[in-house]
């Protein structure tokens, strides 16, 4: 919702535990927020090849009390977590092997559910998340900037009240799956005619 989040702030990440998701940036940003006195609870949903590395980092950063990893969950459980969250955060970056995301579906889901997003400016993400309009964008691998953006969206109720409805409109108007399928079908029909 657009109001100031309750304390502790509830922050959500839904991602495969893989290099391209930039989870170390997210956890270092969370550490910055904790160091600034933020009361927060972060939940990570997902699993993957980087699980041991991520859980070790959480421990090294002293975040065990503020964060929890609950593995892969059903879509209904994920939706329930969106409903209870004040902020969604993802640190997408280009992996060492060149792998990177297009536009992660979890961003669209979060925005459609009214949960504001902080995400990295990479690949096609800025097509969905317009900085300061439908969410906040930060450079990849910049935990301090991510922490600042997260703090803004947790504290600035006017910003939340502007971004949340704008993000819902952006997803439903421009990124609705039925509309996208219809647009693709129209393109294919046009190509067949030529």
Structural topology:
Elements: E1 9-14, H1 23-35, E2 40-45, H2 51-60, E3 67-69, H3 75-84, E4 87-90, H4 105-112, E5 117-120, H5 125-128, E6 136-138, H6 143-155, H7 157-174, H8 177-193
Parallel strand pairs: 1-2, 1-4, 2-3, 4-5, 5-6
Helix pairs in contact: 1-6, 4-7
How does this structure look, described?
The structure is a single chain. This protein is of the alpha/beta class and 194 residues long. The protein is built from 8 helices and 6 strands. α1 (23-35) packs across α6 (143-155) and α4 packs across α7 (157-174). The relative contact order is 0.16.
The portion of residues forming beta strands comes to 5-15%
DSSP, total strands: 6
Structural category: alpha/beta
Which word captures the global form?
A: globular
Specify the helix fraction band: 40-55%
Determine the mean pLDDT. Answer: 91
SSE pattern, N- to C-terminal: EHEHEHEHEHEHHH
Segments where pLDDT lies below 50 for 5+ residues?
none
As laid out across the biggest beta sheet, the strand order is 3-2-1-4-5-6
C-alpha termini separation: 48 Å
Q: Compute the number of helices.
A: 8
Radius of gyration: 17 Å
For the biggest sheet, the summary is:
6 strands, parallel
């Amino acid at each position: 919702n657009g109001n100031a989040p309750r304390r502790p702030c509830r922050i959500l990440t839904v991602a495969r535990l893989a290099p391209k998701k930039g989870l170390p940036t997210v956890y270092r940003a969370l550490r910055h927020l904790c160091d600034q006195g933020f009361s927060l609870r972060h939940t990570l949903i997902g699993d993957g090849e980087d699980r041991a590395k991520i859980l070790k980092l959480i421990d090294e950063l002293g975040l065990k009390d503020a964060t929890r990893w609950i593995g892969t969950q059903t879509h209904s459980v994920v939706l329930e977590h969106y409903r209870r969250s004040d902020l969604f955060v993802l640190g997408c970056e280009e992996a060492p092997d060149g792998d990177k995301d297009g536009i992660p579906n979890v961003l669209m889901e979060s925005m459609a559910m009214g949960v504001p997003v902080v995400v990295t400016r990479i690949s096609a993400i800025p097509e969905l998340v317009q900085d300061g309009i439908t969410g906040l964008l930060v450079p990849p691998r910049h935990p301090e900037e991510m922490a600042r953006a997260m703090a803004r969206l947790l504290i600035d109720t006017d910003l939340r009240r502007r971004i949340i409805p704008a993000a819902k409109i952006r997803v439903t108007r421009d990124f609705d799956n039925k509309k996208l399928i219809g647009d693709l079908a129209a393109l294919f029909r046009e190509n067949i005619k030529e």
